[in-house]
Amino acid sequence: MPNLTLYYMETCPYCQKVLGFMHDNEITLDLKNVLDNPRFRDELLEAGGKTQVPALDIDGTIMYESDDIINWLKDNPTP
Ligand SMILES: N[C@@H](CCC(=O)N[C@@H](CS)C(=O)NCC(=O)O)C(=O)O
Questions:
Q1: What Å distances lie between residue 54 and 32, 39, 62, 69, 77, CA to CA?
Q2: pTM of this prediction?
Q3: Residue 14 buriedness (CB in 10 A; 0-12 / 13-18 / 19+)
Q4: Range(s) of the domain holding residue 25
Q5: CA angle 71, 4, 78 (to 5 degrees)
Q6: Which residue puts its alpha carbon closest to atom 14 of ligand 1?
Q7: Furthest C-alpha separation in the chain
């Protein structure tokens, strides 16, 4: 299983969609709130080229777009 981290903001509806999917499917990921910690936002920009959330870091490769993230999580069940 790759290392996974979800960058998110509480106030973002697209993030809430991903977090809701994770909750419903009992998926736990490392979470980085980009509003709580500006360093996470800089880290995301550096790794993925933009600050859009939600963003899933998959072993250092950033996936943007909530639907793509949810589909990826469906295709790659966490243990
Ligand atoms: N189509 C995207 C929309 C994501 C989006 O609009 N995120 C906003 C927050 S709700 C955002 O990150 N805006 C700041 C930015 O793009 O830097 C998705 O479904 O994930």
A1: 10, 16, 10, 8, 19
A2: 0.97
A3: middle
A4: 4-75
A5: 60
A6: 52
A7: 31
CATH classification of the domain holding 59: 3.40.30.10
Tell me how many domains the chain contains. 1
Burial of 3 by CB count in 10 Å (0-12 exposed, 13-18 middle, 19+ buried)?
exposed
Condensed to tens digits (0 to 9), the pLDDT of residues 10-55 reads: 999 999 999 999 999 999 999 999 999 999 999 999 999 999 999 9
> Which residue among 43, 52, 63, 68 is best mutated to probe the pocket of ligand 1, counting the most ligand atoms within 8 A of its Cβ?
52
Distance CA 43, CA 19 (A): 20
33 CA distance to ligand 1 centroid (A)?
Answer: 14
Give residues (CB < 6 A) around ligand 1.
Answer: 12-14, 51-54, 65-66
Q: What per-residue confidence (pLDDT) applies to 50?
A: 98
Structure-token pair, residue 45:
């920009």
